[in-house]
Amino acid sequence: MKEEVEVVVAHNERATLRVGDVFLKIDADQTRIDVEVQAMAMAPIPTPEILWRKPPVLALAALPGTALGRLGEPSTASSAAWAAAGAAVRKLHDAPLPPWPGRSLDEIVARLDGECAWLIENGVLPTDLVTRNRQVAEAALRPWTPVFTHGDLQITHVFADGDEITGVLDWSEASRGDAMHDLAILTLGHEERLDDVLAGYGADADLDVIRGWWSLRSLSAIRWLTEHGFDPSSPGCEVDVLRARM
User: Fold this and answer.
1) Cβ–Cβ under 8 Å, residues 52 and 37
2) In what residue span(s) does the Aminoglycoside phosphotransferase domain sit (predicted)?
């Protein structure tokens, strides 16, 4: 049977295609690919095998198993698999720091406030919804001890086979960052799974900060998602995450 080309994700910044058991990542910004390759080499947890690289394309072998789930859909992964994801994140956070920095607190605050203003000025969301979540987000806006973070730890990037984590994808946002950010992105829209994740992660999790990152991430992402063909108002997605804080 002839293999087909599956478009996994595509927008004007980058695209990922799948052909059989090979993923082809195409990115106009080679800095992101450089970070991804370095981060996967440093990460102490399973990552995809790099098959070859010829800019602007990076070819990766498919991971066994399936993703923990998708935003806006119930996850069918077991509690043990979610706990294993938490344990993997802890192992990453305990690893030596990557040599490159992440976003500064000032950069994050400036981006958040700019996005909040845009949401209100353009009538995208009610003012009280934005204002309340901006207040919740304040908990995340504090100094943190940097750790090795994935940076974009969406559940679609974490693969499991049964109760075992088989690998983590998409390391282009990896950097020195806030540990609670990774935990928040992993559980965004799946708050009922946070206890499972923390059972594997262990101590030192701050629930208020995690909730702050849920609000911060959602507020900051809505414009980008809308402009790139995604719908943050779909059930269970970013707008519902914001409404849950009310």
Assistant:
1) no
2) 37-211
Give the residue numbers spanning the domain of 125.
67-244
Q: Does a structural domain hold residue 62?
A: no
- pLDDT tens digits for range 47-79: 999 999 999 999 999 999 999 999 999 999 999
> For residues 223 and 221, what is the distance between their CA atoms, to the nearest angstrom?
6
| pLDDT over threshold 90, residue 8 | no
Q: Is residue 27 part of a domain?
A: no
Backbone angles phi, psi at 207, to 5 degrees: -65, -35
In DSSP terms, 5 is beta-bridged to 19
Number of domains in the chain: 1
CB–CB of 172/33 below 8 Å?
yes
Strand ranges (DSSP E) for 62-145?
66-67
Residue type, 18: R
Structural domain includes residue 154: yes
pTM of the predicted protein model = 0.94
CATH of the domain at 215: 3.90.1200.10
Whether 51 and 60 have beta carbons less than 8 Å apart is answered as yes
Give the model confidence (pLDDT) of 202-221 as tens digits. Answer: 988 999 999 999 999 999 99
- Which residues have C-beta within 8 Å of that of residue 104, sequence separation ≥ 6? none
